[in-house]
Queue: 3 jobs
Job 1
Amino acid sequence: LNTADMDAETTTNTEPMAEEEEPLFSNLDLFLFSLIVGLVIYWFMSRKKPEPIPEFKKLDTPAPTTRETSFIEKMKKTGKNIIVFYGSQTGTAEEFANRLSKDAQRYGMKGMAADPEEYDMGEMARLSEIENSLAIFCMATYGEGDPTDNAQDMYDWLQENDDEDLSGLNYTVFALGNKTYEHYNAMGKYVDKRLEELGAKRIFDLGLGDDDGNLEEDFISWREQFWPAVCEHFGVEALGDDSSIRQYELKEHTDINMNKVYSGEIGRLKSFEVQKPPFDSKNPFLAPVTLNRKLNKGGDRHLMHLELDITGSKIRYESGDHVAVFPTNDSALVNKLGQILGVDLDVVISLNNLDEESNKKHPFPCPTTYRTALTHYLDITHPPRTNVLYELAQYASDPKDQENMRKMASSSPEGKALYQSWVLEASRNILAILEDMPSLKPPVDHLCELLPRLQARYYSIASSSKVHPNSIHICAVVVEYQTKTGRTNKGVATNWLKNKLVTDNGHKSTVPMYIRKSQFRLPFKATNPVIMVGPGTGIAPFMGFIQERGWLKEQGKEVGETVMYFGCRHKNEDYIYQEELEEAEKNQVLTQLNVAFSRDQEQKVYVQHILKKNKENIWKLIHSENAHIYVCGDARNMAKDVQTALYEIAEELGSMTRTQATDYIKKLMTKGRYSQDVWS
């Protein structure tokens, strides 16, 4: 529809009509009429009290100006020449980006960390307007080779803009991933390759960080070689200034209205008191816990099933999606930290960014108390990264302690080995480090600046919205273990969830949560057979799938074969959801239920062994009946062993070579017929 043509037509049709009739009012009449109306309006306006006018002025100039989406203008304004973009799901890539932007200062340069979601990536080509400029990309890979949520727009931009000329752009990429996953560091590799294709100049090699090994060590080794390469490229020298660089300054509030103080909210102040949809990672919904039961009948572990009520929240989910929950740290740990540092945890503070132009005004929501920060906002249970040790070293009064802390943060083989054994293998969190190094007494505000943010935890949803539209089910195993130092370490989220009783002193227990969409989906055609492999808590999404297939059958739909491969240790201890699974088999919702009890006999039996035993049926379903395969659970061993079993079945029954069999299974993945929801 061409509007220009339409306008032209309308004008030609209406003009003759205008000529035919005499105008009703002359120009003088219209002028006098307008004048009278104007005077009446003026009289009315001038009668009104002039009080509301200042109010309008206030509205006219709102305090927050439109957010600066141009990173180029921001860099020019603040004299920055290095920008570090991060694609981060769990906060690690953001942490690394902050460290690199801080490093720049030691080389006489100025850096800024940037969330690509907040800026217009179309400006990338303009970076050449800034002298000695460099873009660093710290890119994590999520799930099956996907970009993280905050890097999705950047990924789309890189894919769609073939004619972009980035020849003036200097760049380097550090990728964060995990070798146990199929698409190891796919996002970092893609950004690195794509920028080169668009003409950008790589000034240092792609760094590959493996979280299955030692991500921190990979990052340090890469960084140690990266900065000398930058110095050489730009002809600059290190300033030799190794002193600690504070990013935030402390402000203590003595007479503040407590209604203005954050008490654990993730985004908007008081968002937990006044809940407003839509709910997402910055605005979670407080879902009441309606059921919390132990699933296993015996054994020394605690497997649990929780149900969260989402009535009235407008939250929608599908089987296979993930629920993200925001846990809180154990109050006993927080109190111990307060004791050992000798601080009043209830002091109200703000940590304000020294760089006033930064988008990140505070490291966590401020103003708040130290207690709230250490409970809701900061990760106090993971072994701290080397940069934290390096910055805290100055507060150790014993020179030996100082030396060891700095050594652990270096890239020397001796330092790496010390960090590996003393921090990682001993699972020492910040509290354990402070307890075992009595000479170390850091100021609590600097510690709060350095500790990473406490992140949301993701769980595969164990229900179907077709059957439970107002309820989300979680299935999880409580993490608790002894460390080499004789301490008991507890998983933050699972222990917090375990203690979420349905009512607590007459109050409903609530869980701050939101939904993360997943690609883990039942086939579009219900007639397609499905093969589900999920030992342990890997069964979670399949409980949703089974409920959904049952619901489809009840609707009179034709449903393909539904085959389940589940594994646990002992039939009489941890065969979770046994009643539900056997009921589904009895009602022929599950056409086959195969369970491997690994420790009920001399020889260990796992899901991959039963797959191999049923190879003819598996091959028929996959090769002849277009079955979809789903694997959920441990990425390191189980998912790999299942894949190998499928290679062997294809090799034997499809008369293929190992290479052909591998290609055959990989093709199922690219076609979306082989999906994995795995973790390591």
Job 2
Amino acid sequence: MVYRRQTVVLIFWLGFLVVLNVLSVSSIRVNFDSKQIHFSTASQQSVYHDRKSLEELDNEFSEEILPIVKLFTDHGDLLQTTGIRCEVCHAIARHIKEFLMLNATQEIIIQEGILICSLLRLQTQRVCSEIIPKFGPWVITVLAHSVFSAENLCTKAHLCPKPDTPEKPEIIDLPAPTTENLSVSENQNGGDDQRIWVVHLSDWHYDSEYGEGYEVNCGEPVCCREPNAFGDKATTPAGKWGDYNCDAPKRLIESMLEFLPTAVPKVDFVISTGDLNFNFKGSLFLSYYICISDVWAETPSTITDNNNKTANIWRKFFTSAPFFPVIGNHESAPVNSFPTSSISDIASVSWLYSTLSSQWNNWLSADVLESIEKNGFYSAKLPKYKLRVLGINTNYFYKLNLWLLIRPREEWDPEWMLKWIIDQLDEAEKLGEKVWILGHMSALDQDSFPSMGVYFSQIVARYKDTIVGQFYGHSHWDEFNVIYDKSINDPSKDPEAVGIAYIAPSVTSFKNMNPAFRVYEIDKVTKKILNHYTYSMDLQEANRLDKPEWKLLYDAKSLYGLENLDPKSWHDLTEKFITDTNAYKIFKKTASRNHHLDKYGSCSALDTQCRNRIICKLRGTNSGHGPYSDNELCKKHGWFPHLPDDWFLNAALGKHVNVFVDLDKTDKDNKFKSMGDNDKDNDGDGITFKGLSKTVVRLIMRFVMGNDDAVCR
């Protein structure tokens, strides 16, 4: 608890100093405890709107607040505070917010942000000058209304009591099960006419500007296209059918869709689980916290244009089978920006929902399109199959959707989508229907708010007999999440596996994966998934031979020796991975579709800790939820840079220069001990920062690279 408090307070002050640094136009010096601290002042402010000037705020802060605070030791290793009281914390937070809320301040932040981005080479000058103006106002607005609110900051720093307002529930209200038995018998001997075949396509990341022969390592977030600094003399030219460092060209996508009839006896349904637009490659710091794509070119009009091009491809190939798409986090501009209707006075994404509704009208009914236009999710009923398809908007689960930070406190369920899901499931249960849930991101994904994983698992446990399929994407890996019933708290029994989230491989080859798609074989009567098949193309071979060959990579039952695809079978498979090295290696290799890197997330080693992290990820613990979260197998660990005690940071944040450290084996002074350098990952060009203390570096690296897969998806 002490360490956590020190961490929060350190981040609080670090954030404040960063704000002051960004705002600096001229500076003053304040002497305190034999230290010189630089503060900023701004001159010639033209618009104040009856607010204090930056100079007045600076003077107020230095005269009234600083005398109560001690800052750093000589090396900056520890942050000590004395006399910080709740009212003082509120004064500091209000001071920061007034900085952010000044209109002139926003202009300065954007200008200085472009300068810092360029000087530190976070991106090229061209990219910096476009990224900052697009993301600056969004981020500043969110920070001012949430992160830097006095209530939020001071409560998180444990300097003030929690506000006397309703908290999010731990257990949500769910209707009692129906007493009527509406189950259907198993169809043990059904032939092909008793099968439903579903094609699952995810994470297209179609790049309509991909150009064969252009530079792959162009130094900008999106390469393999014009313009680039290499002209026609690319040192690493992009291949005809794509590249492992870039997104999917049109010819790759069309070759896949042309192959579909060969792979599937008949296509009954097609589902697309989001992310239609191009991806991001660049500094890990930017990609993890902002997760930007080609943002200097992304506007509602360019997003609409790219989605139109994708929809035209769909219309060419999907002419008969029902087609159900859902929204990914890359569908908006700026990316990840999905405000709820409760804050429509600040921002709105209605333009996107209207656009997608018009683009998807070939396949969806009028009532479904109306629901999409309202809030981005829908329910489609298929009476012929006694089936209901719920296409949910998982951007309301997403941590990087910063608008969720400023929604009304009582709206713990964004857009009340979870309540809507419960209502749909309850109605389906009463009618004897089965339900498929489609979404871009699993609620148990590491990118999801932990509370959403808690709530969603409760829903799945309650309606485990009604929900017969869950289909997602987002991670780009070929993987799954087991969902457990946490309400059964019996240490003598294994947690009950009640659901399985099928996470499909990506169509795009970004990053270091072979393009792929999945097919499900489903019982027509019970709607249960009998098997699934992954098809992939060896991109390296396709470029070498100029001949794309899509092949069956594996089927789940044969590869893993599964008797069936029930949730318990998938849980048992994760148990098998603990002791069976060969089974584990097979899974890890297929996650990236047999690419020669044989890598799964940041976990490229075969040591026990690496394996445990993967198993725990499959059990959904990365979201902070699940009965295995507190299990010894899934104990949380941290990632820290390997630096001598007297060094200051001189490392690239775009690279994994770190070692694995067990937090329980640290000494009382929080001096971290190395346990070996097992998981180095030298992806990315990175950026060098100098002059930060080792403690601050560790904190930054922990937050930036603390997950198994800190790559924008």
Job 3
Amino acid sequence: MGTSQSTSVAAPRLLRENTGLCSSSEPLNQRKKARGSSSSLATLRRRLLLRRRRSSKCPDHARYMRELLSGCSLAEVSALCEQYEALAALKDLSVQADLARPPASAKKHDLAALFETRVAADVELVYAGACFPAHRAILAARCPYFRQVLGRFPGHGARIGLELRTPGVDAALFGALLKLLYTGELAPHQHDRPLLGRLADEFGGAPNPLEQDLRYLLETGDFADAMLVFTKGNGSSSSSSSSGHSEYGFSSLGTLERPCHKAVLAARSPFFKNLVQRRNRGEELQPERAGLNLATRIVLDESVIPQRFSSVLLHAVYLDEVNLALVCRPLEGGPTSLEDAMELYQIGRFLELDILSQGCEDLILEMLTPNNLATVLAWGARPYGSAWVYRQAVNYLRDEFQPFSQSPVLLQLSAEHLREALSSDFLQASEHEVLQAVLKWGEHQLVRRMEDREPNLLSHTAHSVARKGVKKRDLSDVELREILSPLLPLVRMDHVLPANAETLAHAVRRGLLPTPPSHMLGGDRDAVRIHAWIRSTSGCAQGVWIRPRLFMPYYEEAKAVLEEHFSQAVDVVRAAVRRPDDIPDTLYMVDERRSLEAASANPAPPLPDPATLSQMVKREQKLRQSPLVLRALSLPLTSRHLVLSQVRLRVVREFNLPDATAQLLENASGLKDQEEAARRRGPFARPLSASQEHLLYSRRRPEADAGADGHLSEVMPDVAMATASFNQLELEESEIELDLGDGYCQQRFFHY
């Protein structure tokens, strides 16, 4: 796309230069005399520039598409544009599905849940006959009144009776005021403003912004009742002594201790919440420790959470921010910022701190460049990597495939990553460029294979392969065809423009292609080429149709041809060739049947609970009414199946479930649609059968429900010390290969 735009902008300028057009009214012969001998040099310079542009290897995509459409009828050009419009709408939905992820809970929501659940409460406030369990550190930091009251009752679990001087404050209003201290927001129902003003005077003024007080707790450590200990040692549970040993036997040498607050830790992380609750139960069994007010020590192993990440971790817990500038780095060498973000993502997963994990995902995406694309793709595809980052990296590869195909980035990619990109309808490159890139990548892999076969004793000698290089004529076509066998079927050979491209002809002569393009097999070649791009407007098969990719230069040129030559009859022709949403297609149904068979062969993903499934169905129904989905479904050549598949993928990803759950959501949505249809038909409609109602849960496996791509607390014990590094930690994830439409088209091509 960028090549065609630059060519169109430069062409008028070159035309003006070569035709001598100028805004000056000075006669041409006088200007030549003024320039003198520089005229011939400037003319030569312009000729060389024009010759260089004419001999450039950059393809003219607009010209190729215009030549293809030169022999097409108005109905065929209109049908091609409608195909592109349907793909453009589907791409918008695909981007939304790839960006979907469960939202990370903000600090105010976590603190509100902490107040409502009363987890790790260490003080009880009694007012107007009602008891309100609360957290000492939060109340003392947020309100001067409570700081003064709590100072008089320092014991853990103190029960404090309160009386306010301000009249008219009932228990409900007092509870709303306490929640205000946790969230920074007052309850939505209205209150008497003068009464609130008098309460603010009694409590010492309106509270500060929540972030300000949390930052104060983090930076000062005031009211701290816990200590995060980052250590490399292995100690016993002996008591602390004055010789520099902690109460758990860890030497202070080589350790880092950071004061913190149990209430904040328990609110932000289920990992820390379980740990704090277990420690509190243990301290309740030791009455001799109750009056000492000792800080709870949470010991973390250096192999799991290195000390250099301590500041970043606490800033994420208290302030909802991930700042890699807080990482302690060595003076020379050490991990890069990208590697730190990847390791912090795994720490966030381990601690079940979603705000840290998603913040690292965003940072990795910001640092994504062509140089580290292969690294990010490889990391994202691993069990401990981020599937969300992987999807964004794949989209980056698809959008920039055209420049990547001409750079060393192409040679760094694996076959799996190339398959992921080439299987998409939204790849931004022409099929000619795709074919060239695949051949270039395959030849590079073959050279590497030949170098690996070379004896080590001869490596880099005068006669070695690596030293003298490998020429194309030395490459084995048989081995090259074996290497490219997973990739070449994904290249849509009938869409290579120009059709007589030397790259395509050479690949056919070498026997690399499993099947030659249809226009090389004889018959009316022009008609075969057209019908490979455009589905027959009459509804009958007249050629091997393959869905074209949404390559934007082709799309823009097709629209330009339609607007230039057929602008008067566009509406009439579109109305004449309009057809139902889902045109019956035998091979499409065959492909769908194969996908269902493959799904039945694989183990079923664990089902969500009925309440979650009901929420997912409601979310899908809501998304179906969004403008993008309605627009996509309204297009004449759209595929309803593909559109709704993207909607379901978005839903299951928003609920942090594997992509395979989309099939189960489709079953649930189908039953929901049947219920809606039965309700519209009236009371005499036939109810659902018991087998239909049992369909969703007939394949449920209770033993697989726990830990389905969820938090680690559901699948492993909650421990403070961990001995395994993250490289040894493997998370099992279910994956499903998406079919966005090109698969069945390619099957149509090779099984026609």
